[in-house]
Design goal:
Layout (H helix, E strand, L loop, with lengths): L1 H6 L3 H21 L9 H9 L8 H13 L2 H13 L6 H4 L5 H11 L5 H9 L7 H9 L9 H4 L3 H9 L5 E5 L1 H11 L1 E10 H13 L3 H8 L19 E7 L35 E6 L1 H9 L4 E6 L7 H23 L1
Antiparallel strand pairs: 1-2, 1-3, 2-4, 3-5
Helix pairs in contact: 12-15, 13-14
């Protein structure tokens, strides 16, 4: 009887032992480290929640995401710029970036500009600007000031800059309209950032030439000012007496004389040329702006001389240039329509 009782273990004993083993297993799993090729449970759960929102397979989802990326405005813009610089796509669209063909024909004749300005325009649109005066001039035409190299980089030979600025040893000069002369002295001061000047000897010769030719129109032609435009000096309403004020600076070095960089407010988009020449071929440089109080003091001390110069012969040539201005306006309208199309 005792033998039987020793062998007959109650069922409750096995049930209790089974629960103890289960508890030990859970405790061991809780504190044990994962295998080398197995992530901890909390990381496995985090990984599963990082799936794509649409819960599709990775390959399919990647295709869809790539389609969205390819069709995004930024990618399309980048692709169009890349196409513009490829040799096969320098077409009418990229050529129109140069804006006005007649302007570039004029520029090409005056400064030995590249034989293919439209191709260069396409390259600049793609972020590739030639580090020379031609590339800088084209970048300014396209309003890409950030792609214009500094004068020192455009003319790496320091002798060029030194020789050019040496032309101002006898003084610098600027032509100022009567309206601006009044405003400079009354409230503005001279210039927003920099002021363009020419060598004084060159200006003296130009004054004599203008008086014997077409007056203010001659000044504009040599200095790169468009006749009867918004910036024209020969204006029947604003300058009926055909007068120009001459600002003479005996020592321009005292006003930080330097090469123009194309960043100046006076470096007009369709007129400025890198290298120290105007569109008409005259020498130019820049000096610092001069606040009103300083301007008046320097005029009073003779550091800056101002004098009035009349060009009465200008009146004879208004009809000639009015016709040219009308033709230019028609051409501008035609070009702007072509660009829109």
């Amino acid at each position: 009887m005792r033998y039987f009782e020793a062998r007959c273990i109650p069922f409750s004993y096995y049930l209790t032992r089974s629960k103890m083993k289960s508890s030990k297993t859970q405790t061991k799993n809780k504190y044990s480290h994962p295998a080398a090729n197995e992530l901890p449970e909390k990381h496995r759960r985090r990984e599963s929640t990082a799936q794509l929102a649409d819960n599709r397979s990775d390959a399919f989802a990647q295709v869809k995401l790539q389609e969205k990326l390819d069709n995004s405005p930024l990618v399309e813009k980048t692709a169009s710029l890349k196409a513009m610089v490829s040799p096969d796509s320098v077409s009418k669209k990229s050529m129109q970036l140069a804006e006005k063909k007649n302007t570039w024909e004029h520029l090409k004749g005056k400064t030995s500009i590249t034989k293919d300005p439209y191709k260069m325009a396409a390259e600049i649109a793609g972020g590739k600007t030639s580090l020379n005066t031609t590339g800088a001039s084209m970048a300014r035409r396209m309003d890409r000031k950030d792609q214009i190299g500094s004068p020192e980089l455009l003319k790496p030979n320091p002798e060029h800059v030194r020789n050019h600025l040496g032309k101002f040893a006898d003084g610098a000069h600027a032509f100022i309209t009567p309206e601006k002369n009044k405003n400079f002295k009354a409230e503005w001061g001279w210039g927003l950032d920099k002021n363009f000047v020419s060598p004084l000897p060159d200006a003296n010769k130009l004054v004599n030439e203008a008086k014997n030719k077409e007056g203010i129109f001659t000044l504009e032609k040599v200095l790169g000012i468009a006749h009867l435009s918004g910036n024209s000096w020969a204006d029947k309403k604003k300058n009926p007496e055909n007068v120009m004020w001459r600002y003479i600076i005996p020592k321009p070095q005292n006003y930080n004389l330097n090469m123009a960089s194309g960043q100046e407010s006076g470096a007009l988009k369709d007129k400025w040329i890198a290298g120290g020449k105007t569109l008409g071929g005259a020498n130019e440089a820049v000096i610092d702006k001069i606040p009103r109080a300083q301007l008046l003091w320097h005029i009073n001390k003779g550091k800056i001389k101002t004098e009035e110069e009349k060009f009465p012969i200008t009146k004879k040539y208004f009809k000639k240039y009015e016709k040219e201005a009308e033709a230019r306006m028609r051409e501008d309208l035609r070009v702007s329509k072509n660009i829109k199309e």
